[in-house]
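Batch manifest, entry 17 of 40.
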Amino acid sequence: MTNDVDTLATARYATSDDMLKEHPDLAPWRPPVGITPRLSDAELVTLATMQAILGHTSEAKWLRHARAHLRHLFPYLPQQPGYNQRLGKAAGLMRSINRILATTSVWSDDVWVVDSTPVECGRSRETVKPSDLAGWAEYGYCASHSRLFWGLRLRLHLVCTLQGLPIAFALTGAKADERETLLDLLAAECELLRERPRQTLIGDKNYFGRGFERELSEHGVQLLRPARKGERERPGAALFKPLRQVIESINETFKGQLDLERHRGHTPGGVIARVMQRIRALTAAIWHNDATGQTVLRSLIAYDH
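Output type: structure tokens
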């Protein structure tokens, strides 16, 4: 097995197809009587993954590219409306397959990093007023980039400070409290910590509070974070500066290479599906790099052409 884009697509399709045969309940619901889609669910999630990896933010341009260059991988390709409709309904499928795929790679690392990054959904007032995202997306401030934005925050909980394998995520309004979101996420996915009694979680200064840390401790999680102003030095202080750069590097992979902020989603379902595309793309690259024995698991260089 080699780490090129065609091999990755073939491996992703074969793995997804096997998973759907073993777990047919993962597929989106369809009436028992009807027309069977010519593009299978395994082909759909593979096509969506390749779109994110190859950097196509426009579905129309992506399908034109696929018809010209990927016919050997996808004999049938739908029109743009059909692709958009199926993609919007495939978020749950992509999440389920992504979780199964992630557990076969570097899943068992006992160190996680937690951070949040804005997912912008619009800038002009005229864009905001008629949007179907109004009421979910909202105005917020990104201190890292010193800018206001209208959109969401993507909560990234990543296994391994170096590999960046996505473990869990949540999409919330821009003003949501990061600590509450993290606790809700751990409560909703309690199986993540069931077999990890001594998980270490590294976060920034926003993840503070005695009650918050006590709840994490009850989950079996040890929190490491920099000291806030007025606090005494905390354990692991020497690690935070280099780890901060690693966290920012992971965010940049999503934004710079996987075009997270150019998702073009206009509805909650569309945004979720397109964010899942990016998460699935990074997971697939890490999984494939791990399987092919690459040194840097988060590298997308072999697949971005």
